[in-house]
C-alpha cells in the first residue's frame, strides 16, 4: 500500500454507522502539519500551557536538589557503615538510590521539554533547594536528612501548585517524587525516634 492511499483511507474511518461524519474527528492534517513544524520542540506541542523557561528552571533546580541529596545520603551511608550502624546505613543507601532515580526522571523530562539538564558540579550546591550537610554523628546525619526532606517536600508541593493544569506531565512527575520524599521524611523521623528512645 502506498503512503498516499493510507492517508486517503483515514477519512472513511471517521464516518459513523449511518455514514454521517463524526463531530469529534480530529483534524489530523492540521495536527500532523503542526507536529512537523514544531519537531524541534520535542514532545511539547502547541497545547503546552506553561511557561517553558520557568518549568525548565524549576526542573533544573530540582535536579540539583536530587543530586545533592544523592551525594549527602551516599556520604552518610559510608559513614554510618563505618561506625557499624548497619540498619541506618542501609536506609541511607536506599534513599541515595531513590534520589538518583529522581534525578534521572527529572533530567529526562528536561530533555523532553527541549531543555538541557544542568549537571555542572561547581554550581550544584547553590542551585539546590536542600543543603549538603555532612553531620557530625549518626543522629546529626539523620536530622540533616530530615531537614533536607522537609525542604524538598515544601518546594515540590509549591511547584505542583504552580504547574496545576498548565503542564500535567511535569506535575505528575513531581507528585510521584513528592510521595517518595514524604516516605523518606517518615523513615528519618522513625530512625530518630528509635535512637532517641
Ligand atoms: Fe528525591
Ligand atoms: Fe528524599
Description of the structure:
By secondary structure, this protein is an all-alpha fold. The chain folds into 2 domains: 7-37, no CATH class; 52-196, Ferritin. 70% of the residues lie in helices and 0% in strands. It has helices spanning 3-13, 28-37, 52-82, 86-112, 124-127, 138-163, 168-196. Residues 1-19 have low confidence and may be disordered. One fe (ii) ion (FE2) binds at residues 66, 69, 99, 102, 177, 181. Residues 1-25 are annotated as: Disordered. Keywords: Iron, Iron storage, Metal-binding. InterPro entries: Dps-like, Ferritin-like, Ferritin-like_diiron, Ferritin-like_SF, Ferritin_DPS_dom.
Q: How much helix is in the residues?
A: over 70%
Bound small molecules, by name, code or SMILES, are: fe (ii) ion
CATH architecture classification name of the largest domain: Up-down Bundle
- The first-to-last residue Cα distance is 75 Å
SSE order, one letter for each helix or strand: HHHHHHH
The CATH topology of the largest domain corresponds to Ferritin
The unreliable regions are: 1-19
Shape: elongated
Mean pLDDT comes to 86
Radius of gyration: 23 Å
CATH superfamily of the largest domain: Ferritin, core subunit, four-helix bundle
Q: How many β-strand runs? A: 0
Q: Please give the largest β-sheet.
A: none
Total DSSP helices? 7
* Name of the CATH first level of the largest domain: Mainly Alpha
